[in-house]
């Protein structure tokens, strides 16, 4: 131990002239400074005016900074730090000089590595300290978050420090071994840079292996909140510790015996080496191999609610028909409930006092919900047998398909080109889904992946069917041949799977095939109803009819037509809950017919005060139903605002009602919109959507000065018909 301390002191003296620790501080401070500047310039952080789940401002800032630091700046610093420590002695013969001293070679090797690891820790601590300083400085320029706390969270911060330090061990030890064995400063640095650039390149094409040292480090940024199971480090970071130890063992013995040949030229050492390699490989295989959870013996939903509001029940709903699956009693904000009926593998809704979320489960799944509630905001962490599935559905980002571009631009003349592109896009989506891992290296079950791939395939099958239909119109009499690739895609999805009919894309695909050859002079809804009526009785027919009848009832041009559809088809279901669903839909639509008193809407203004729909009577009311995440909504918003300004002096109020779940995001964007539009938020989004049958947004509604519905399905403001309807109702001269 004494020789190690002596060696360490020597390394500390030598490092004084290198500026290593100052560099560590600078590299750690860079990302927090950039982050704070971006927040100030873009003014995106804070501004919560409404209900948001409480959080720690500084801890959240550190988590945001992790999106860039582990992937680039930290490994860049490691490359520089290792080279500065090792190459100084390579240039002046320091290695040979130290070996002549009464100091063990192990102490020499590890003392330099310790200095590098110390520099790593300083850089990480600098990142944390500067995040606190820079984020605190940003508060001078942005509105202080109203539900944020500003204390120093010891445990979460220490967890981040620990994760970063451990995750960096593998790359640090590997770069150190390379720099010790290669005397050339240039080559040791270049190898490190090539590994760094290689990770960036491989990530672009999503082919980077999980064991790649920089992928292990980047894992911290990818999962900035850490283990979903509550562990201090993830299994990937544990792998970094194991592999780092192996590299230290290998590098030291290589250095000790001045080459691998000398090292292995000894039977005893060979046995030890083989044993170490085997153990390391076995541990690595265990840690990097994807893990799945076993099904449970019962269907259980349990959990706890972090809220100041007491809750009596949680309702689990079948989203397909909006039917209640279970009413779960809540006592002392905790619950445990067994669902005894068989439920298909699907996404289910859960709600509590108007607040809602979704969870994925099936029969014999045990699901644990950790719900945080504050006002009208809700966050749910889902663990249990379907943890990976729920994580995937929450985090998946839909990808863009070039085949859709061809269709949107009517590029349908080249069948081979479209077929090849469609197959390429489909293959990419399927491969991407297969690679998904949670922070703890869990993967979705085979049943989920089968269903997921079928659902993903449906988008491409519908694109192909759309392509064929467009060609049928554009090139009558000309066949559209199916390539082997298209046939392969079609094999993924059966045509009579009632389980898939929970997904609208599957209904659209089957429906398009059923009516494709129907040349009768009638609308598609009528064709589909007739085709579905010919199916044999059973669950498949019931679900197909439910989908189609919903569409037909909504598209009915008159109340009489709608009532006729209900009379002719709604009572032919084998499943009577489907009948009830159609009857309730018909009732809802009858309440928003022209001339009916508009259903009440609970609203909240930008000042946080409640506003009722009746309080807005006296003027016509043009409503824009939108959300911050809705691209088409944002595209229509300028047209709506322009008309609001144009008719400011008339007997009409323009109002935008947001359906955002996260009210802080709504508040920020609403503040930036025209003052001529009254900005409101739907207090009970689910009730509003049900009462007005809001199936998609943007949605535009016109109510007269007496509170009666004029048109619950107005054209979009970008359509001149929208303004014409308003002028006609206001008694203004036609344009």
Give a description of the structure.
The chain is of the alpha+beta class and 735 residues long. Among the domains are: 287 residues, no CATH class; 96 residues, Immunoglobulin-like, CATH 2.60.40; 129 residues, Glutaredoxin. It is globular. The chain starts with a helix and ends in a 5-residue tail after the last helix.
What descriptors fit this protein?
27 helices, Immunoglobulin-like, 735 residues, four-stranded mixed sheet, globular, 17 strands
Strand order of the largest sheet: 12-11-15-14-13-16-17
Approximately how much helix is present in the residues? 40-55%
Q: What low-confidence regions span 5 or more consecutive residues with pLDDT below 50?
A: 44-50
Query: What is the count of helical runs?
Result: 27
The first-to-last residue Cα distance is 92 Å
Q: Measured on Cα atoms, how large is the radius of gyration?
A: 32 Å
The structure class reads alpha+beta
Biggest sheet layout: 7 strands, mixed
Please report the total strand number as a whole number. Answer: 17
Strand content: 5-15%
State mean pLDDT (0 to 100 scale): 90
Judging from the principal axes of the Cα atoms, what is the shape? globular
Indicate the topology:
Elements: H1 2-15, H2 20-42, E1 55-56, H3 57-65, H4 69-92, H5 94-99, H6 105-138, E2 148-149, H7 154-167, H8 169-181, H9 185-204, H10 213-222, H11 235-256, H12 260-264, H13 267-288, E3 300-306, E4 313-318, E5 323-329, E6 334-338, E7 346-352, E8 355-361, E9 366-374, E10 377-384, H14 387-395, H15 402-408, H16 415-434, H17 446-474, H18 484-490, H19 504-515, H20 524-533, H21 539-555, H22 559-569, H23 576-591, E11 602-605, E12 610-612, E13 620-626, H24 631-646, E14 652-658, H25 663-671, E15 677-682, H26 685-691, E16 699-703, E17 709-711, H27 720-730
Parallel strand pairs: 1-2, 3-9, 13-14, 14-15
Antiparallel strand pairs: 3-6, 4-5, 4-7, 7-8, 9-10, 11-12, 11-15, 13-16, 16-17
